[in-house]
Amino acid sequence: MLYQIDVMSRVPVYEQIIEQTRRFILRGILEPGDQIPSVRSLSAELSVNPNTIQKALAQLERQGLVFSVPGKGTFVAGKAKVILAEQKRGELEEIQRQLRELIWAGISREELLKMVNELFDNRWSETREDGK
Amino acid sequence: MLYQIDVMSRVPVYEQIIEQTRRFILRGILEPGDQIPSVRSLSAELSVNPNTIQKALAQLERQGLVFSVPGKGTFVAGKAKVILAEQKRGELEEIQRQLRELIWAGISREELLKMVNELFDNRWSETREDGK
DNA sequence: TAACTGTATTATCACCACTAGTACACTTTT
DNA sequence: AAAAGTGTACTAGTGGTGATAATACAGTTA
Q1: Which of A115, A130, B52, B74 has the CB geometry, 3.0–4.6 Å to B68, for a possible disulfide?
Q2: For B109-122, how does the pLDDT look when each residue is reduced to its tens digit (9 = 90+)?
């Protein structure tokens, strides 16, 4: 199963769906034109109410990341990747804010630069969420 | 007034108080031993219910950042800065996650490294929240 | 026709941030 | 001693919202 939600999380289920979909598109796991799992199938496999799924998809459509065709399904939009890249750029300020805090907390310039470089070098290795 | 809250924000008022207090301590605006504005004064100046203020201070005390003396007031703990630095280190993974997303969005290694260096160089210039 | 798709509606529940009001005990100031 | 300020505790109520439940309608596909 592609999607995975954590019911214990404080972040709303519908936001988790949005977040994961965005990540799938950004990483090319979901390509433009690809069909997103249907409302009912997602609802069943995630044990989540259909309304919750629909809420997430509706929001994704408002952002232009997907488009829905009644009777057919919901698909990844062609400009999805571009839109996502732009949005990430918009989050730059927030990331800078966090890095500033980290600097105030005493991290060294060398350590931070090294971290960034390593992130680039390991760009293609998948992120593992487990602890093993 | 030191503190400032945004009632329109989606982030809870008591979390804003916590967040700002942490920032004040981290940046040395509030030093160990300094007294934090009283529950009632904060309540009055921020137009916020005393319970909301107390909720924030109680949580800060649980984290060991402040300590309260009934009848006297609430003060910044001696080890506050150390605790804060440790906590910030703990947030490293989250920051890395965001930087990874940024890389996936197409930011170049040079641009990111340049940004980090500039953050260090401008470390002492105050952050302005206004748009002027 | 049957089984799938998205979409819409209404009602209900639960949690939580927040407010309101009151009260108690302690410390400092006058 | 009195007053004013401090932290702390308790109960009650309100509003927003995330989530569920149960239907229903319309379009598409096998």
Answers
A1: B74
A2: 999 999 999 999 99
Alpha carbons B13 and A99: distance in angstroms, whole number: 23
Q: Are A66 and A57 in contact (CB under 8 A)?
A: yes
Q: What is residue A7's three-state secondary structure?
A: coil
> Considering only CA atoms, which of A86, A99, A82, A90 is closest in space to residue B113?
A99
**How confident is the model over B57-69, as a mean pLDDT?**
98
Q: Which CATH architecture has domain A13-80?
A: Orthogonal Bundle (1.10)
- The residues close to strand C, meaning Cβ under 7 A, are A 36, 38-41, 50-51, 54, 57-58, 61, 68-74; B 12-15, 47-52, 55, 69-72
List of chain A residues whose C-beta atoms are within 8 Å of the C-beta of residue B119: 96, 99-100, 103
The pLDDT assigned to B131 comes to 34
Q: Give CA torsion, residues A111, A116, A118, A120, to 10 deg.
A: -170
**How far apart, in whole angstroms, are the C-alpha atoms of residue A14 and residue A12?**
6
Amino acid at site B37: P
How much is the average pLDDT of B124-131? 58
Q: What is the pLDDT of residues A67-119, one digit of tens each?
A: 999 999 999 999 999 999 999 999 999 999 999 999 999 999 999 999 999 99
Cβ neighbours around B32 below 10 Å, total = 16
DSSP A27: T
| Cα atoms found within 13 Å of the Cα of residue A11, Cβ hemisphere only | 9
Residue A33: CB atoms within 10 A of its CB come to: 10
Residues of A in contact with B109 (CB under 8 A): 116-117, 120
**CA dist., res. B117 & res. B126, Å (int):** 16
